[in-house]
């Protein structure tokens, strides 16, 4: 099953942006993430639209934070990037008349909804500055 690592990768970029003293180009970020600069620009544009980053055009241009890491939560970034559930588990709809399928789907949906609610609540409690503190502590050792 393919994992969606966009959240993790974007968090990585935002913490790096905080560490840089100057704007960072899409090309540099793309090299860090081993991806295409177009993908970076598209993703960063989503973050810019929500006010988390800003872009500067020109020779010394690039991306930088528009908000402090302490003002951004995991939930903020998840909501900016996501359109769907945090889970990739899907319910079946092959046998819509089958009462067993209905029971299985209801049980799975209830459990996934509860787990997702708890996860998103926790995402709202974690700021990116907390992640940055851990990163800086590891650098100091």
From TrEMBL:
Gene3D superfamilies to which the protein is assigned, alphabetical: Winged helix-like DNA-binding domain superfamily/Winged helix DNA-binding domain
Top-rank taxon, per record: Bacteria
Molecular-function annotations in GO: DNA-binding transcription factor activity
Residue spans crossing the bilayer: none
A matching Pfam family: Rrf2
GO cellular component labels: cytosol
Protein name stated in the entry: BadM/Rrf2 family transcriptional regulator
Organism annotation: Marinomonas communis
Taxonomic lineage from the root: Bacteria, Pseudomonadati, Pseudomonadota, Gammaproteobacteria, Oceanospirillales
């Amino acid at each position: 099953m393919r994992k969606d690592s966009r959240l993790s990768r974007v968090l990585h970029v935002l913490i790096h942006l905080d560490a840089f003293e100057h704007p960072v180009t899409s090309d540099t970020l793309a090299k860090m993430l081993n991806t295409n600069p177009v993908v970076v620009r598209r993703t960063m544009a989503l973050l810019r639209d929500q006010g988390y980053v800003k872009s500067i055009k020109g020779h010394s241009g690039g991306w930088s934070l528009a908000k402090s890491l302490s003002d951004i939560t995991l939930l903020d970034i998840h909501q900016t990037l996501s359109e769907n559930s945090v889970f990739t588990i899907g319910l079946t709809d092959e046998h819509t008349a089958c009462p067993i399928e209905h029971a299985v789907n209801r049980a799975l949906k209830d459990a996934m909804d509860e787990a997702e609610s708890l996860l998103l609540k926790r995402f709202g409690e974690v700021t990116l500055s907390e992640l940055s503190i851990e990163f800086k502590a590891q650098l100091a050792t």
